[in-house]
């Protein structure tokens, strides 16, 4: 005899739960808040996801896989991939204050779990490293296509950019004025000129 059919969309549950985790942080998100956000009862939620941690990890994977795939698609189809990298950073300028206050979920996750949960830190770090590798790959392609030259290696520039990505996502929580963020971003992106 088959179990009861699912009456919810797993992807939607992951989207709603990770947005709540992003807004509040993992530890500050209660089960009651999760159940309200995803509109499920406790039994349904924990039959699908064995724990709050599993729900968080699966939601993080889904969110970041979608985001990185979309960014990689833009890089692949662009004649000017360095412009796509610049646009990623510049998208922060147009973010609303609510998004600015949330920062980057990957950086937030690493900071919240550092020294406490190596598995979750490893999951978040995976996506940061993947973004860095995309930067490196497309900077190298731009060099090979003679669209860009630098005395620095593509790897060094990619590491600089990922460090700046982490930094600007902290700074956007402090400096929410678009003009301040724009100045910071434009200054750091001169490395791609």
What are the salient characteristics of this protein?
Tetracycline Repressor, domain 2, mainly alpha, 2 domains, 0% strand, single chain, HTH_TetR, transcription, transcription regulation, 193 residues, 10 helices, 73% helix, DNA binding, Arc Repressor Mutant, subunit A
Summarize the structure.
Residues 7-67 form the HTH tetR-type domain. It holds the Pfam family TetR_C_13. This protein has ten helices and no strands.
Q: What is the average per-residue confidence, as pLDDT, rounded to a whole number?
A: 94
Helix content: over 70%
One letter per element, helices H and strands E, the order comes to HHHHHHHHHH
Give the total of beta strands.
0
Q: What is the CA-based Rg, rounded?
A: 19 Å
Please, what is the CATH homologous superfamily of the largest domain? Answer: Tetracycline Repressor, domain 2
Structural class: mainly alpha
**What about the largest sheet?**
none
Query: What's the CATH architecture of the largest domain?
Result: Orthogonal Bundle
| Unreliable sequence segments | none
End-to-end separation in angstroms reads: 64 Å
CATH topology of the largest domain: Tetracycline Repressor, domain 2
Oligomeric state of this protein: single chain
What is the 3D shape? Answer: elongated
Task: Compute the number of structural domains.
Answer: 2
């Amino acid at each position: 005899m088959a179990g009861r059919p699912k009456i919810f969309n797993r992807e939607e549950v992951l989207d709603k739960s990770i947005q709540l985790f992003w807004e509040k942080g993992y530890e500050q998100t209660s089960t009651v808040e999760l159940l309200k956000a995803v509109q499920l009862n406790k039994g349904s939620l924990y039959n699908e996801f064995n724990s709050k941690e599993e729900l968080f990890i699966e939601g993080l994977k889904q969110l970041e896989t979608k985001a990185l795939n979309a960014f990689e698609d833009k890089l692949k189809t662009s004649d000017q991939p360095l412009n796509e990298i610049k646009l990623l950073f510049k998208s922060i300028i147009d973010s609303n204050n609510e998004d600015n206050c949330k920062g980057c979920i990957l950086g937030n996750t690493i900071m919240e779990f550092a020294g406490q949960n190596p598995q979750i830190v490893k999951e978040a770090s995976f996506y940061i490293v993947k973004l860095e590798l995309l930067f490196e790959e497309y900077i190298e392609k731009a060099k090979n296509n003679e669209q860009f030259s630098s005395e620095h290696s593509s790897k060094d520039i990619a590491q600089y950019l990922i460090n700046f990505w982490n930094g600007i996502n902290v700074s956007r929580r402090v400096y929410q004025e678009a003009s301040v963020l724009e100045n910071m971003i434009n200054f750091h992106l001169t490395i791609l000129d």
